[in-house]
Amino acid sequence: MTRRHFGALPDGREVEAVSLRAGGLGATVLTLGAIVQDLRLDGIAHSLVLGCPEPGDYLGAGRYLGAIVGRFANRIAGGRFAIDGQDYQCDLNFRGRHTLHGGTEGTDVQIWCIEALAADRVTLALSLPDGHMGFPGAMRITAGISLTADALRFDLSATATRPTPCSLAHHGYFDLDGLGDIRGHSLTIAAEHYLPVDDDLIPTGRITPVGGSRFDFRQPRVIGAEGHDHNFCLSCGPRALRPVARLCGQGGLAMTVATTAPGLQLYDGAHLCDVPGPEGRRHGPHAGLALETQAWPDAPNRSEFPNVILRPGASHCQTTIYRFET
């Protein structure tokens, strides 16, 4: 375990990096956004995730790569919602019309504090003030990021001083082959339904069976070039930790995703563009696949979706494990 200076953001904020290891798995985690900047498995020549070499890269083309996104992951239509009869308007950072991943200054661009550090784990903490990005209530978030010999684990928790929407997600982009194109990977998702979206990627409100559609990943199938940025409905609320997806590269490396979350956002990285990578490489379209375990998008405006309102005295808790096998 090491702790070192990683660099500074354009506004002068310092970013630290911690190196974790357990058995044959090693990771670099940044205090910026609780970002997993690098993930290495012994015997594999490349990083299993996309990462950027400089802190400032994560404010531009590399936005959200490897970060914990929130306080509400994914989109809120119009950035508006009501709780207990009170209306709220949040930051409109997606196409100037909607709120994405907590707004312009979401958790991914905040500097988290290191609360605990060991050879194989780090606990990071972040406090957001009441009214931050238009959301009600002060919120305290902790992210426990740990390794075993074959797995990367996230234990996320949050509390709030007022009723507020809460959804946290690890926004890592995975590439099991190191080829810069994940469309040849095979994917399985244990979901019977998904959420169709409109042209702004906002759920229409329908909860649609996957059968007979390009969203049917109940049996392994190649990701291909059909285009995916959709939520898969794993359950109608938080559940016990269970496997929900499996990703297989063409070279024999596989990754199983287990989570307690009710939703899984599948994004094929189609809009990645000229993102700085390690050793002078650039990440382009489809360079990585995001499998974001989270609440359902726009849930604050959809009473038929699983509840996402975190109230004072309660805790939001979520565990997700990405396990690798060769």
Describe this structure in words.
The protein is mostly beta strands and 326 residues long. It has no helices and 29 strands. The protein has a nine-stranded antiparallel sheet, with no helix packed on it. It has a six-stranded antiparallel sheet with strand order 16-27-24-21-18-19, with no helix packed on it. A four-stranded antiparallel sheet has the order 1-2-3-4, with no helix packed on it. 47% of the residues are buried.
Offer a quick outline of the entry.
This protein is an all-beta fold.
Low-confidence stretches: none
| N-C termini distance | 25 Å
Q: What about the largest sheet?
A: 9 strands, antiparallel
Q: How many strand units?
A: 29
Strand content: 35-45%
Rg: 18 Å
The largest sheet has its strands arranged as 10-11-12-13-29-23-22-17-20
